[in-house]
Structure formats: structure tokens, C-alpha cells
Amino acid sequence: MKRIVIGADGSPPAKRATDIGLELAASTGAQVVFVHFSTLAEELFQEDPQNGPSQQRIEEADPVLHQAAEAARARGVPAELKLQYERGTTKIAAELAGFAEGLDADMIVVGNRSRSEVAEVVLGSVSHELLRISPVAVVVVHAVEQKA
Questions:
Q1: Where are the beta strands (DSSP E) in the chain?
Q2: Cβ proximity of 141 and 110 under 8 Å
Q3: Which of 6, 14, 28, 71 is the Cys-Cys partner for 111 at CB 3.0 to 4.6 Å?
Q4: CA 34, CA 77: separation in Å to the nearest integer?
Q5: pLDDT of 66-84, one tens digit each?
Q6: Per-residue pLDDT tens digits for 8-22
Q7: What predicted TM-score, i.e. pTM, was given to this entire model?
Q8: Taking the domains of the chain in order of start, what are their residue ranges?
Q9: How does DSSP classify residue 109?
């Protein structure tokens, strides 16, 4: 395995997906690419429209990707940070799948927020859409349920 794309959004399931993706990367020698879809992307790309933001600038500005980068450094896993424009669920899934395919990634790891079935139908689900359309293997990580 050479490259794993990890969807990062700061949610507990995404943080767990980061842990699992980094564990897989550490055990296989793979590089990880963290991708966060955020409205912050527009602001950062306006700072340098020709080249886009540097890895350092992304990490400084985006707390989600900063935390992911820290986790990767702690495990000794090489990581790249990608900040993308936030769009609807279907577009995020399609962009993530296309991005992973373009990088020749071996796997995409994402968290699942485990919404109700009604919420999934109304709001959609990036993880479900990825499972449906991705040409790259997808690992969906569920939130850990808290015991009462």
C-alpha cells in the first residue's frame, strides 16, 4: 500500500477514521493525504490564487487539518494536507472519489456520523455515496457508541 486518503471534518467518527487510517499507513508504510472540505478553502486560495496555500498555511488556518497533521507526525506517518471547497454531500463524495483515483490511492478512509435513516435520505451521506461510486476501496469507520 502506498497512499491512503482520509476524509477529515473534525467529527468524532472522522477522528476515529484518522486513527484507523494512520494505523493502516504506519503498518504498511503508506503516505496519507488528509482532505477537508471547508468554506475556509475559498479564503485561503484567494491569498495566492495561482499556487494555492502552502501546507504550512493550511495547517495554521485549519484546526481540523492541523489536528490530523499532528496525529500523523506523532505516528511518524508522512502526510499531505488538502483543503477543498465545501459542497453538497453528493459532490463531496464524487470529488473525494475522483481525488483518490487521481492520486492512485489504494484506499479512502472516512467516518460515518450514523444519522437516522430519515436523516440519511434527506441529508445524504458522503460515506454511503462513496461506497456506491468510488473506484478506490472505501473503509467506513463508525462512531464508537458510549456505554451508559
A1: 3-7, 31-38, 79-85, 107-112, 137-142
A2: yes
A3: 14
A4: 12
A5: 999 999 999 999 999 999 9
A6: 999 999 999 999 999
A7: 0.89
A8: 3-142
A9: E
